[in-house]
What we know:
This protein is mainly alpha-helical.
Amino acid sequence: MSAESDHPRPWVAMSSHSSVFELDEYDWDWRQLQAEPAPQILRQEVSRAMPAQDGHLQGSPGCAAVDTPVLWHLEISHYNEKARWALDYKGVAHVRRAVTPALQEFTARRQRAGRTLPVLEMNGRAFGDSTKILEEVERRWPEPPLYPADPEARRRALGLEEYFDEQCGHDVRRVLFNDNLAEPEKFLAMLYGAEHPRIGLIKALSPLLGQAVKLRYRIRPETVEQSRDKVRAAFDEIEAEVGPSGYLVGESFTVADLTAASLLAPIVMPPEFPYIKLHPAERTPQSRRFRDSLKDRPGFKWVEDIYARHRGTSAEVATA
């Protein structure tokens, strides 16, 4: 057995590769919503979610040959937050196209970029998966860096990105969905926002939506408790890995810090998170109790601090 595989936290020793963030464990074909007997108004909403095939916006003056990147995203999603934060941190001017939750597969498939969001369009290409997007953003805009220059530090940072992607992010979502599904109106407000233009339709479909969410994300008592343990373990990992500098790897902010903070943000919900649909204090009692059990932990405060120090100003630009 190699020294790497003997590591007490083996995910830190993993070689870097793109995380698999597709449709989770259950592949629900949302294309069924386009067929009868789906309500006509719902099929219209599906059509609105499909991006046009008419090219991209042109870049800013002085960069006319380069298209302005277009980010198709889910506002509330923590994996989408990874991509937004990377673009913002590097000051990459980009257009954002928000997609209605539950309709993301249509957009991703239309772009031929997998089956979910985020999807980043640049220069006639579409990149899916938050980790692949970060790789491409780092390659095209290397300053300020998110990947450490030192090979060992880079390996550790990418290993931690992999850990939080695969051992934390899905579980944060499962816990958050389970705890707020108990009150459907709160769940819908958390996901869509009370001011969503189709909130009336969404509320009418909430019984079907709730069943579908439970099935799709394997929300059962035993899986939810396992996910709670994984969320606690993620805070354990932060507390074990953070150094005197306040960062997980080395002396500066890296992809490891960005990923850990992004994927725990739906639980912590720091004020700098750009799309807060429902404040944590307004969530269900069960959701508040779980958050309250974590909020005095050093790892929870670390997420708040990383957001306060590094979330910065949005680089989103208006459409032409």
